[in-house]
Amino acid sequence: MKRTPPLNFLLLGPLSVRLNAREVHVSAPRQRVVMAALLLNANRVISVDRIAEYVWDDAPPPSAAATVRTYVMRLRQSLGEHASARLLTRAPGYLLELGEHESDLGQFKAHRRRAAELAERGDLEGSSAELAEALALWREEPLADIPSRRLRDVEGRYLKELRLQTMELLFDAELALLRHAELVPELVRLVRKHPLREALVGKLMLALFRSGRQSEALDLYRRTRVLLVEQLGAEPSADLREVHRSILSAHHRPRTPESPEQPATAPETAAATAPAAVRERSCWPSPAQLPSVPLPLSARSGALARLQHFVTTGSMPAGMVATAVVTGRGGVGKSALALHTAHAVRGSSVHGQLYADLGGAGRTPTARAVLPRFLADLGVPRDEIPEEEAERESLYRSLTAGRRLLVVLDNASSTAQVRPLIPGSGGSRLLVTSRRRLADLDGARTLLLGPLDEAGSLELLSSIVGPARVGAEPQAARTVLTVCAGLPLAIRIAGTRLLERPHWSIGHFARRLTEAPRLLDELCAGDLGVRPCFDADHAGLRRTAPAGIDPAEVFTALGATGVSSVSGSRVAVMFGCSEEQAEEALDALVEANLLGAPTGGRYRLDPLLRAYAHERAQAVAVREDSHPYRRAG
Prior knowledge:
The protein is of the alpha/beta class. It is 51% helix and 9% strand. It is built from 28 helices and 15 strands. The strands form 5 sheets. Strands 8-9-10-7-11 form a 5-stranded parallel sheet, sandwiched between helices. α7 packs parallel to α9, α14 (367-377) crosses α15 and α24 (551-561) packs across α26. The protein is elongated, with a radius of gyration of 33 Å. The protein starts with 6 loop residues before the first strand and ends with a helix. Mean pLDDT is 82; it is low at 251-283 and 629-633.
C-alpha cells in the first residue's frame, strides 16, 4: 500500500499547513475555521453540527450542513490528493487522521509526556529540557487568525491553559534544580498577567525568598490575599498559605552545611518549598534504615512481584504519593514481604530509605514520636526541629518533596498514624503494612496477604530444620503444618522449637501440638509467640453499636462451643438476634482477622483461632447453665 507523506500542521500560533516542505494556504476564512476544528479534534469524529456552531458562532443558518460539506470538499482540494486522504467522512461528521508528530500540538503533548516520565525517574534535568522544547513550539497567539469567536473561546482557552500548566511544570523543575534567580523575571511577568493564579504566585514567592528577597515575597502574599478577598471573597488556598507560613517560620529551618554562619533567613535555608528541594542534593544525608530479613520464599514470589510492581510503576496525580499497603492477619509475613520489596527496589529510591515500626495495635507511636527522628535523619539538627506538630509535618513534606525516597511504615494500626508521615509529592514511594485494610488511605493500592499453602509451608519448615528431617517424617510434618494453619509465624516457631531440640522427632512434636490442653503454649519460642498476635487483633476489635451484638462476645461463644465454622443464622439463634446483626458481628471478626472470610455462607476458624477462642472462653468462665448461646448450641 502506498504510504501517505507526513503532514505538518501548525496550530500553536497562526494556522498553517506544510506538505513536503511546501506551505499550503487555506485562505478562505470559513474553511480555516473548519480546518482548525478538525485539527483540534484530530483522530476523533467531530459532528457537522459542532463544526457549524464554530463556523457561524452558534447561529448556523438552515443550510449549514450542506454548506459545511461544501467547505470540506474545497478543503480537500486545497490539501491535495495525499493530504486529503486523511480527511475521512465518518457519521455524524468528519475525522482527520493525524500522527503525533504531524502537528505542533501533537509534538507539544509528546514532549509533556516524556517530561513526566523523566520526572518520575528523578531526571529533573531531562524533564526540564523536554518542557522547554514543548514551549518552544508556540508561536504568537494560537487561533488568532481563525474568525470564530466560539472556537477561540472553547479551544483557544484550552490551549492557553495547557501552555500555562506546562510553564508551571517547567518552573517546578527549575526550582527543584535551584535555578530560582533565573526564574524571577518571567514569573513576575506572568503574575502581573495572572494575579489570581495562586500556583504562579507561590512559585514567585519561593523564587524571591530563595533569591534573598524575603520582604518582597511576603509583600506579594499580602497583595494577593487582598486581591483574592476583594475580587473573589476567598482566602488564599492551603498551598499558598503553606508557602507563606514556611517563609515566616524560616528560623526553624536547617542551615546549609556549607554556610553555618548564615542567618536562618538566608535563601539557602530549607524553607518554603513544596515541589522543590531546598538545599543542594549533594548535601542531603541518604538514610538507609531498612532492617534485614530472612531469605524470601518461592511461595511468596508472586506476591513479591505484584508488590514491586505497585511500588515501582505508574505515576500519581499531582499532589499524591504512590502508596502500597500490605494487609493481612498478624504473623502472616507482611513485614517480611514489605522489606524484601523495599530491599529489591532500593536502586530506585536514590535519596534513601526511611523506616519506622509503628507497633500495630499493641503500642501506637504517633507522628509526634516518629517525625523528629525522620527529620534528624534527613539532616535537620535536633535543636532546630520545630516544637509544633503542624510545623514538623510541614517541614517534613518540604524536605521530602521533589526527592526519591522510599518510606516504609511497618505495623500501622490506622490511617491517622500514616497520614502525617506521607512524604511530599514527587518521586517518593510509601510502603505500609497493617492488619487493617486502611481503606481510607487515599490512592493506596492494597495487597491482601493470605496464609501459605501446603507447598509454601513445607518450604518454610524445611528451610529451618532441614529438608532431610522433614523428608524423614513427611506425614508428621504435615500434621504440624495443619495445626500451624499456614501462618508463617507459627511455622517459624515450630521450626525453631524442633531446631532447639534435635532429640525430638517431628512426630513427637506433632503429638504435643494435637494433644496440648493449651495449644498456643506450645507455639512460643523466646520472645516469639502466636498468642500476642491474636491478643493485638482482639484488642483492636471494632465494637458494635448498642443495638447490635458485641463481636467479642460472639468470638467467646465460638470458643466455648468449639466449632470450626459457623453461619450467620446459627449465631442469630445463639444470641436471639437478627441474621443481619449476627453477620455484622461476624464481619467485624473477619475485619479483625479473628475469623476467616465466609465461603458458602460459613465463617471458618482454623486450628490456631479455635485454640485462641477457647482460651478467651475459659478466661471469661463461660458456663453452660448461665449462657443462652451455650444452651442453644
